[in-house]
Amino acid sequence: MACLGAVVQKVFELIYTRTDLRRMNSSSVFWDRGVSGGYQALLLDEDRGWLLVGGRDHIYLLHSDSLALPTRTIYWPAVKEHVEHCRLAGKNLSTDCANYVRLLQPFNKTHVYVCGTGAYHPQCTYIDLGHSTEEPLFRLQSHAVESGRGKCPFSPQEPFTARLTDGDLYAGTSVDFMGTNAAIFRTSVHSSKQHYIRTEAYQDHWLNGDGCRVQPVGQEGLQQSGTHLQNDVGGKRSLINRWSTFLKARLMCSVPGPGGLDTQFDELEDIFILETKDSQNPVIYGVFSTSGSVFRGSAVCVYSMASIRAAFNVSFMRGHQLMWEPILPVTRRPVFTRVNVPYTLRRVVVDRVDADDGQYDVLHLGTDDGKVLKVVSVPKDNWETEEIILEELTVFQSQAPILSMELSTKRQQVYVSSDEGVAQLPLQRCELYGRDCADCCLARDPYCAWDGNTCNRYFPSNKRRARRQDVKHGDPMSQCYDVEDANASQSASLSSVVYGVESSSTFLECVPRSQLATVKWTVQAPQAHTSRELSQSKERMVQMKRGLLVQRLEPGDAGLYSCTTLEHSFSQVLARYNLQVIPQQSMTASQARAADPGAGRAGLRGGPGGPGTQLFRNYKDLHTMGAASMSVDEYCEQLWYREKKKQQKLRQLKWKQTQVDNRKARVRRHGSAEDIAIQ
């Protein structure tokens, strides 16, 4: 696998957990109490603003504007006899023997075709939504329930794919209880006779060519691209109910290596069809994974519909079902790869975004451990692309795989489902990139631009406004004209004083705003005029993700420490610390005075005592200090304890004074006892 060296793994611009998203109010999650898992099917109605969700024994109608709004539910369980038969067959009653809704496909303007596993007895019917947008009927047509064989898998875990078009349902699934008889089916949902056409039964070689693998998953279902005549009604005799015009060609997705040794991503996980201005030539995005055990990896490749048509439009196809020439990606290599990471890409939706310097395709990818990645592919010269990973979001509490994804360009939302529920995520979080022009520009997010005050969503417009954005290069110097003045004023306000005790440790915090930036630490000695870069060879100086750890402080460590980040040749100072090292002898003398109440009231001094010595009144400002005879925590606890006792005494005095004042007030209001007796 020599070619793996060419696959450059990127880091993420923003990484947020489920807790972070909830705290920022940046996600909304739906899950039905008392219903365990199985949210596998999503169907988005952009015009009406509804999201249909298929779950375990239930179908849900959610508002696509907010999943937190009230929902409507259809209860559609499996038949009791089928549940009992499923249990007797050795299946798990709690995880297998239920009706998991696996298919939701639009049938017409008022009806949706729905299929479920039915406790290993697949069944299909229709959902009537009616014509109303505000109050849909949302009614299951129980009288129209029919067999789901060849349309829906028996098992809730078995991968499958299906698409309903022109009244015909094309599905790649199995048609037996054990899941061994898999095929590609075409079934007419208009006809009551359930006429179907399928590929050969129990003949994997018919689908699997030399060097090809078939994995019936995702929307497409095959690593090959298949085609047939739409009016194919099957053959005669041995070809009854069998395809007679089915052809296939292999989709190539590989990273070129030296000497023709390519890294193959040979299992198709999912596809997304990106519509273009030319409705006859959409762009096809495919997610692939590796099938071997040498290494684990995923890739995204892009194909044009024209190249797919060309692969079948040759005379070679007359005598061969598998085309000779494979279908190559548009860029001749993946636009995005992830190798040697603890997850595999499973789902993809793509949004074409208009930016200030062109159009960009933003990929939203779901993984098998519950993460959602946001990636933009920037075209370069010679068909090369640059991978920019903008976000990694942990959406759900557990690491359950992402099962389905839907994209709403109208509402600027992406919907993802797993066994834990359905989540709604905005396509952009521009405000999180920073509060100045440079950070917004360095993010290189096509959704975001600097408007002069904040980093917010970019709206393409003919009006010339002060919108600063550079997705292709991410160069703040060309976009943010006041960046040098801003850096100078910011650097002047960043310096802070930190005290550390000799032989102890201190931590200088510096968190880069971008995970793509590199951090450099420099130090300037008290009497020096220039600064020097900290050497990585020093064992006492440990550069960490969130700052610099200085261990076993020495007097020579004092100085001005600067944290500078560098990204795309743009550098900025994030933090400056004036580190002052207190000799250990001074600390010991200060502790001795602290044991005396008088000395404690005077505070901690930086020297042996006497007039003219520096006074440190706030001990909390001394970061991670230590001493020979007493730890910092113990010393702080003593100081805080004395302060607490002082506060308690003050509260008691205030309470007593309040009681006295109240008695005096009552006497003034009612008069004294002698005055009352005289009256």
Question: What topology emerges from the helices and strands here?
Answer:
Layout: E1 14-16, H1 18-23, E2 28-30, E3 41-45, E4 50-54, E5 58-63, E6 72-75, H2 80-88, E7 101-106, E8 111-116, E9 123-128, E10 139-140, E11 146-147, E12 161-165, E13 168-174, E14 182-188, E15 196-198, H3 204-207, E16 224-227, E17 247-250, E18 254-255, E19 263-264, E20 267-274, E21 283-289, E22 297-304, H4 305-312, E23 336-339, E24 345-355, E25 358-367, E26 371-379, E27 385-394, E28 404-408, E29 413-418, E30 421-426, H5 437-443, E31 448-450, E32 455-457, H6 476-479, H7 483-492, E33 495-501, E34 506-509, E35 518-524, E36 532-533, E37 541-544, E38 547-550, E39 559-567, E40 570-582, H8 584-595, H9 597-602, E41 604-605, E42 615-616, H10 632-670, H11 673-678
Parallel strand pairs: 1-27, 33-40
Antiparallel strand pairs: 2-30, 3-4, 4-5, 5-6, 7-8, 8-9, 9-10, 9-11, 12-13, 13-14, 14-15, 16-17, 18-19, 20-21, 21-22, 22-23, 24-25, 25-26, 26-27, 28-29, 29-30, 31-32, 34-38, 35-36, 35-39, 37-38, 39-40, 41-42
Q: Give the amount of beta strand, in percent.
A: 25-35%
As a percent range, the share of helical residues equals 10-25%
Please compute the radius of gyration using only Cα atoms.
34 Å
| Unreliable stretches covering 5 or more consecutive residues | 1-10, 205-224, 235-239, 598-629, 672-679
CATH superfamily of one domain: YVTN repeat-like/Quinoprotein amine dehydrogenase
- The count of strands amounts to 42
The CATH topology of one domain: Methylamine Dehydrogenase, Chain H
Give the terminus-to-terminus CA distance.
111 Å
The overall average pLDDT, rounded, is: 79
Number of helices: 11
What is the CATH architecture assignment of one domain? 7 Propeller
